[in-house]
Write a structure and sequence with these properties.
Layout lengths: L10 H10 L1 H21 L3 E10 L6 H4 L8 H13 L1 H10 L14 H12 E4 L13 E8 L4 H100 L7 H8 L21 H13 L8 H13 L3 H8 L10 H12 L11 E5 L12 H36 L1
Antiparallel strand pairs: 1-3, 1-4, 2-3
Helix pairs in contact: 2-13, 4-7, 7-9, 7-10, 7-11, 7-12
Length: about 425
């Protein structure tokens, strides 16, 4: 199969055609390169700075942790600083406090806050270790800023870091004061509760003592009344016995004390043998009517039988002791109840320790600045050499494309008149 002349590609003819249009190709390449060069040299340069923070040393946070009130590890401190650096509210606060650093960003028709909003989204970038990589020797956090030429990026980044660290110090100081005050309030509540409990328990104890004394007094009075009634009954029974014995003694003619054997001598004649059993109780009438009447008269004249029972004297003693309960008096006379509160000394010691805590957080080192922002040597944008190289390459390609297009259209333009 043979190719026609229209389908054959003559490389020599192609090169010859391109050579004939070399001025066009060079002109297009030059124009594109000039355009790229104009952009490279006229575009606003952009610079990039960053600062990196690493965890503070243990000694830097020791004063705060030794309070036993507020615990903050180095890892927690740098996380707080990193979160504050990433916080929009913190950046906005720094912007409002240092608006002069952002003056070069002001744009017509937009407020400074609106300008900062766009700048914040495009310019700031957090620098953190990749959590997927296990080879990180230590934790760190940083912030990167890309800014135009007229902005003082170094002062902005370093100022933002200082502002955020100071802001976190103030927050820690406020948290510390709040925690201490809450602890003090809690101790005051514990002391107040202990005082109320002491007063209630003391009143309850006094009430129990009074109730116990009243109960014991009532029992003693009942016992005393029953004992006196018993003694009175014994006296009445004795008088009755004496009356019977007196009548028997008078009937037997016994006026003086005697014994059964002596009485037998008067009524028995002849020789008899008398035996007296001393183990048996001699009847009362053998005392004789005179002695019996004398005892009866004394019993009738008696006004009280208390002296006959030692228990009555003991009851009187106990009632006398119950008249005044010294324990109740001592409890009521206590002037300073705080001296008897359990754990009061511990609570007061803790409160005094908390009030004496004065931690200076103004110099608290929350993070170590591993890399501070410094003035960059050259801008990151635009990359002039790369732009010029790309402009030259794109210009050459565009010139060749135009030359090839003209070559392809040239035969058509030549044949169209003949067709007409």
């Amino acid at each position: 199969m043979q190719l026609t002349s229209n389908d054959e590609i003559d490389l020599a003819a192609l090169l010859h055609s391109l050579w004939e249009q070399k001025l066009l190709i060079a002109l297009v390449t030059l124009l594109v390169t000039l355009g790229a060069g104009a952009y490279a040299f006229l575009a606003t340069p952009e610079y990039q700075v960053q600062t990196v923070l690493r965890p503070a040393a243990i000694k830097d946070l020791d004063a705060l942790n030794r309070t036993n009130v507020y615990d903050l590890t180095a890892e927690q401190a740098i996380q707080r600083v990193g979160a504050a650096l990433e916080s929009y509210d913190s950046r906005l606060g720094f912007f409002r406090a240092n608006q002069g650093l952002f003056e070069a960003l002001r744009q017509p028709g937009r407020s400074l806050e609106q300008t900062f909003e766009g700048f914040n989204q495009a310019a700031f970038k957090m620098v953190q270790p990749d959590p997927k990589k296990a080879g990180n020797l230590s934790n760190y956090v940083g912030i990167q800023l890309t800014y135009p030429k007229d902005v003082n990026g170094v002062a902005l980044v370093n100022g933002l870091v200082d502002y955020v660290i100071q802001l976190e110090r103030e927050r820690i100081s406020s948290d510390l004061k709040t925690v201490i005050q809450n602890r003090l309030n809690q101790l005051e509540l514990q002391i107040s509760a202990a005082r109320a409990n002491y007063e209630a328990s003391t009143e309850a104890k006094i009430a129990r003592l009074i109730e116990a004394d009243n109960l014991k007094r009532a029992k003693l009075q009942d016992e005393l009344k029953a004992l006196r009634q018993q003694l009175k009954t014994h006296r009445d029974n004795r008088i009755t016995q004496l009356d019977e014995a007196i009548r028997i003694a008078k009937a037997l003619g016994i006026s003086k004390p005697t014994t059964p054997s002596a009485l037998g001598e008067r009524v028995t004649q002849g020789s008899v043998v008398r035996t007296e059993v001393n183990s048996q109780q001699i009847p009362l009438y053998f005392m004789g009517s005179e002695a019996l009447e004398a005892e009866r008269n004394v019993l009738l004249q008696r006004r009280s039988d208390d002296f006959t029972a030692p228990r009555i004297a003991q009851i009187a003693k106990e009632l006398q002791l119950l008249a005044r309960n010294r324990e109740i008096e001592v409890l009521k006379q206590r002037e300073n109840s705080d001296l008897f509160l359990k754990n009061l000394a511990i609570w007061r010691e803790e409160a005094a320790r908390l009030r004496s805590l004065h931690v200076d957080v103004s110099d608290l080192k929350l993070a170590s600045i591993d890399q501070a922002a410094v003035e960059p040597i050259s801008p990151i944008k635009p990359r002039k050499t790369l732009i010029l190289a790309l402009g030259l390459a794109l210009g050459g390609i565009l010139g060749l494309s135009i030359a090839l297009l003209r070559k392809r259209l040239r035969p058509i333009s030549r044949t169209n008149p003949q067709a007409a």
